[in-house]
Amino acid sequence: MFENKSISIGKAAKMLGCSVVTLRRWEKLGKLISIFRTFGNHRRYNIHDIIKILNKNKQKTICYSRVSSHDQKKDLLVQNEKLIKFAQENNYQNIESIMDLGSGLNYKKKGLNNLINMILNKEISHLIINHKERLLRFRSELLFKICAFHNIEVIIVENKIKDFNQDLTESVIEIMTVFCAKLYGSRSRKNKKQLSQ
Fold it and tell me: What domain range includes position 192?
């Protein structure tokens, strides 16, 4: 429909909801370049470039927060409020929250999977997290690389460098917690099965 279609600076400004002066300034900044000029020296813009900017403006800023267990639900709400406040104070647009309850070792969390789908569908411009362990306990760097590939900026609010021993202790505790939960869950199912026989 829009193949090889060029539009005037006036139409481009109207589509983007800005002034002609703004578009001239964007051209100087390299944000939106006209594809050619007419004999009368009027700028012409590629419709696809305009649509890309419109789609970018629709993208969301996601505040992702997570805690490991149900007894930390209050902490989850505090964490979420903190991220939203940070996003608002720094003028991020289209702010939405994703909150997860579950281990940082659990890759099946509903919120995490929604986040991954949004990243792959290019629905996000910014991802804000409290610190990287809130996303995943291990290999969060892999998700950060996928974000970088899709030009998604990841903002870590508390980018603290943890003491090695503290980080190791927290990782071991989380692994043990998941292991114990699976073991007790398995025993519980086994006991229920024996009782039903």
Answer: 163-197
Indicate the angle between helix axes 9-16 and 47-58, nearest 10 degrees.
10
Q: How far apart are the first and last CA of the chain?
A: 66
Which pTM value belongs to this model? 0.59
Q: Which of 68, 103, 125, 140 is catalytic?
A: 68
Q: Give the confidence band of 70 by pLDDT, cuts at 50, 70, 90.
A: confident
**Total domains in the fold of the chain:** 3
Active site residue 68: yes
Mind listing the pLDDT tens digit for each residue in 109-128? 898 899 999 999 888 989 99
Residues 106 and 148 in one domain: yes
- Which CATH number does the domain housing residue 76 bear? 3.40.50.1390
What gap in Å lies between CA 157 and CA 127, rounded to an integer? 11
Whether residue 1 lies inside any domain: the answer is no
Q: What pLDDT digit, counting tens, does each position of 14-28 carry?
A: 988 889 899 899 888
